[in-house]
Design brief:
By secondary structure, this protein is an alpha/beta fold. It has five helices and three strands. The protein has a three-stranded parallel β-sheet. It starts with a helix and ends in an 11-residue tail after the last helix.
Length: 132
């Protein structure tokens, strides 16, 4: 009977210890994700109990930090070339995967002739905005 209480006490202490030292994931995220990472952080914590510690920056700067040993668990990049470079350099545990795809939207109140939209985007008269 005494042995049973000791084992139960040890199990309770181990479980309590696991709860006290809940896991935290360090997520390196591209600056263009800044507006959504907080929503993802809250939702992820609610669903898993795991805390996300976001580190926001340009994908290039985050890659430089990882090359210098920054201990990130997940990298959300704005460009597949960055995680591919980390993979090619042997700094990841697996190949990168695409987590989202976007669409280019061109809006104008002027008749700009969108037949050659690719060339049009390169002209200085076109102002570019990134809406989040």
């Amino acid at each position: 009977m005494k042995f049973k209480r000791i084992v139960l006490t040890i199990i309770c202490l181990v479980v309590a210890n696991c709860v006290l030292f809940a896991q935290t994931l360090k997520v390196a995220a591209a600056a263009n994700l800044q507006s959504v990472i907080m929503v993802l952080q809250k939702d992820f914590k609610q669903k898993t109990g795991i805390t996300i510690e976001p580190i926001i920056g340009s994908s290039g700067n985050l890659v430089a930090q990882m090359h210098n040993g920054a201990p990130f668990d997940v990298f959300l990049s704005a460009d597949m070339n960055f995680p591919k470079k980390l993979y090619d350099d042997g700094l990841t545990t697996g190949a990168p995967v695409v987590y989202a795809r976007g669409s280019l939207v061109i809006c104008s109140t002027m008749d700009l002739g969108f037949e050659n939209w690719e060339r049009l985007l390169l002209t200085p008269r076109i102002k570019k905005n990134s809406h989040r």
